[in-house]
Every structure is written in C-alpha cells, then in structure tokens.
C-alpha cells in the first residue's frame, strides 16, 4: 500500500466508477462496524471486486467474503457483471454493487416561496422530483406541516411508491436548525421558535426523519455527489436571499454545538454599519443580499420602487443597467463584490479549506465572482498564495433536495444495516 495516501481514504479515488458518498471515512462519525464499512465502500466505488474491497479495507479476504454473503442474502448487495470493455481494462469479471431498490429515501428542501423534494434509491439515483409553490410569508407549524404533506404526496405519486417504502426522510430549511436534537430553533419561514420538527414529522409519517439547516444540504450534496467527495476540508457559500455557509471538516459537516454556527452572512464587516434584516448592524448580508442592493439602488438611482415589485425583479433590472454601462449601478455591484471578498477571505483565514464552492440562485450575477473579487479575496487572505480555488456551482435548483436525500441516506444506511 502506498504510504503517502490518506490513511482514512477508502481507496484510490481514480478507481471510483461512479458511486456516491464521501470517498473517505470521517473520524467524527465514530467507529464503524466492518459491515457498514463494506457497504459504504461498495457504494462509494460504484462497483468493486471482493479482492479490491479486502485490500482497500485492509482486512482478510475471508472476512470480506463472509460479510458480503450476508449482505447479498439480505438483498443489500448484488453481483455485478462487468462489461466486456471494462474487463479489457483489467476489471475483474464479477464485481459487487449496491442493490439500489433495497430502500428509498425522500429528501426535501423547504423555503420561503417554494418547497422541493426528490426520492432517491440507495445508490443516490433520483427516481422522482416534485415541487410546491407556497405563499411567501411566515407560517405557523400546522400550515407548514400541511404543505409538507402535499409535497410528500406529490413526490410519492411521481415515484410510484408508498410512504411505507421509505427508509428515511431528510428535511432541510433555512434558519437555526439543531440537527442532533431535531429541533428548528428559528426559521425565517416559521412564525414560532423551537419547533420539534423531527418528532412532529416522525409521528405524522411513521418513518425515521432527520433535519438540517438548508446550507448544510448544499454541503451534503457536494460531499455525496460532487467535487467534495474527494476532499477532507471545503466550504460551500450560498448566496440566495441571504448568505449561508456549510463547512466540511475531515469529511463531515461541522455543525457547532447547537447547529447555529457558520452564519457567514452575519459576520460584522462594519461597526455601526448598515441595518441587517436580523436586526443588528454591519452584517455582511446587509451589504450583499438582494434587499441591500435594492436599498442602495433606490438611493443612488433615485428609484421609487412600487411595493408590488419583488426584490429579485428590481435586482434583475439593476443588473441589466450595470451590464448596459450605468456607472452608478456598476458601482453598487462592485462594492458588493468587495464585501463578498472580505467574507471569503475570512473563511480562508479561519478554515484554510481546499476549495470554496459558490452556489445558489444569485450565481448568475457574475459580479460576485469576477476576477477582481477573487483577487481581492486572495489579497485579504493571510497566506494569499495558498488561498483555495473558488468554484462556481452551476447545479440546478433540485440540488438542495438531493442534499436532503444524502442526509436521509446517511441515516438510512445505519438503520438498514442495524435492522437486519
Ligand atoms: Zn445580520
């Protein structure tokens, strides 16, 4: 074995033939049984021979064979016949793969004006999608639960499966979410605080549920299906109505003590500065969120926006003006870009991530990742030459729900293998 390799790495990443899930085990997850290690390695590989499994897990071929037989007899793994051309490339004729339909997971992202959901099989493949537009206002718990009912019904119908077929449900929403306790401490889409959402949903649907902050869904999506699979440390910064961040440390999401950390949008970039929607002053968000840009534009361009115009409509118009060469509009965006650079440099200085992924609806506004913004980020980083690359995620809207599904898959894996 090559000693220079990350000792926790499941396998040489170049050997991965598809598959999903992190390519290395997180120490934070505690000790794994060999059965779970085998299952997760097969999932991460896509397909793999028994001999390679034993080699990569550093255990005897005999113990792998015993566990594999057990997992096959319970319908979790299956034999996989490698295609002729794969055999020509030196792949063994018979490999192992996950039995995709041994369970299903529902992933759901709740947000202000739209809820979206996917159902995936155990290999992470999306079977069905559904979405529901909801009136964009704070709602009480009963209203939210009724909306969740609606989305669940829609996506189950689209997938042609029943509620009982689900092994787990993953739900993400904006705000402070205590993943461990299953509690929504606060959320901009709810009119009450400290909601025991996990317990409520488990009682309602009779299925195991796991919940998280929505930005962590984006980090989960990267960790399970994206670039983050092969990275120990990275950060995902989302710019939507507000600014969020998910941080992966040692192949696992970092959640803090109460799920309330990583509020990049509310780091202070100016003492006694602009008023933020959180009620405090000088937050990063108060300089780069859509409402902040619209606020500035209404002063600089002497706008008197009618209340019927949503912020995003005004923002589009401002962006069009900047592109057309309006100097005042350009200055507003340039300034916002500089503030974003301050925020990103803070992330670099605190976490030294291998990669920063910028993601979200606002990524179509290219001023946010213009060359001079990234140059400024490097300039403000203490070790600017080692500042990480910044990647723009062009994934579609359903990526949030897929991240929620990854959250559910994590839970489903343990449940399935324990129950057997
Ligand atoms: Zn704030």
Task: Report on the architecture of this protein.
The protein contains 13 helices and 14 strands. It is 39% helix and 18% strand. A five-stranded mixed sheet has the order 5-4-3-6-9. The radius of gyration is 23 Å and the shape is globular. It starts with 33 loop residues before the first helix and ends with a helix. It is an alpha/beta fold and 420 residues long. The structure holds zinc ion (ZN). Residues 266, 276, 278, 280, 283, 285 line the site of zinc ion.
Tally of structural domains: 3
Average predicted local confidence, pLDDT:
88
Helix content: 25-40%
Q: CATH architecture of the largest domain, please?
A: 2-Layer Sandwich
Structural class: alpha/beta
Summarize the biggest pleated sheet: 5 strands, mixed
Give the H and E element order.
HHHEHEEEEHEEEHEHEEEHHHHEHEH
Bound molecules: zinc ion
Identify low-pLDDT runs.
1-12
If strands are numbered along the chain, what order do they take across the biggest sheet? 5-4-3-6-9
């Amino acid at each position: 074995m090559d000693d220079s390799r990350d000792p926790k790495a499941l396998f040489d990443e170049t050997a991965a033939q598809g598959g999903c899930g992190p390519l290395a085990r997180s120490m934070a997850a505690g000790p794994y049984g060999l059965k779970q290690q085998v299952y997760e390695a097969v999932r991460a590989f896509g397909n793999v021979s028994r001999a390679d499994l034993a080699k990569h897990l550093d255990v005897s071929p005999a113990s792998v064979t015993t566990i594999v037989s057990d997992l096959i007899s319970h319908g979790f793994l299956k034999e996989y016949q490698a295609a002729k051309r794969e055999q020509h490339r030196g792949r063994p004729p018979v490999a192992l793969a996950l039995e995709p339909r041994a369970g299903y997971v529902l992933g759901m992202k709740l947000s202000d004006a739209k809820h979206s959901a996917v159902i995936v099989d155990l290999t992470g493949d999306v079977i069905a999608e559904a979405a529901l537009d909801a009136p964009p206002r704070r709602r009480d718990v009963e209203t939210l639960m009724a909306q969740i009912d609606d989305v669940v019904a829609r996506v189950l119908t689209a997938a042609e499966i029943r509620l009982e077929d689900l092994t787990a449900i993953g739900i993400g929403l904006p705000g402070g979410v205590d993943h461990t306790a299953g509690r929504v401490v606060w959320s901009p889409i709810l009119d009450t605080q400290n909601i025991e959402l996990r317990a409520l949903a488990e009682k309602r649907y009779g299925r195991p549920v796991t919940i998280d902050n929505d930005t962590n869904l984006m980090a989960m999506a990267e960790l399970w299906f994206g670039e983050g699979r092969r990275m120990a440390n990275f950060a995902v910064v989302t710019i939507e109505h507000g600014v969020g961040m998910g941080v992966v440390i040692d192949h696992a999401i970092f959640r803090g003590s109460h799920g309330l950390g990583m509020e990049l949008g509310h780091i202070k970039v100016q003492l006694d500065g602009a008023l933020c929607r959180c009620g405090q002053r000088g937050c990063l968000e108060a300089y780069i969120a859509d409402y902040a840009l619209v606020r500035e534009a209404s002063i600089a361009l002497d706008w008197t926006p009618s209340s019927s115009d949503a912020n995003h409509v005004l923002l589009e118009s401002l962006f069009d003006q900047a592109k057309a060469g309006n100097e005042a509009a350009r200055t507003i965006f340039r300034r916002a870009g500089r503030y974003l650079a301050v925020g990103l440099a803070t992330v670099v200085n605190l976490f030294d991530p291998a990669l920063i992924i910028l993601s979200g609806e606002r990524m179509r506004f290219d001023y946010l990742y213009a060359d001079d913004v990234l140059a400024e980020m490097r300039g403000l980083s203490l070790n600017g030459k080692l500042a990480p690359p910044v990647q723009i995620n062009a994934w579609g809207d359903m990526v949030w729900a897929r991240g929620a599904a990854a959250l559910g898959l994590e839970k489903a894996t343990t449940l399935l293998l324990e129950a057997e």
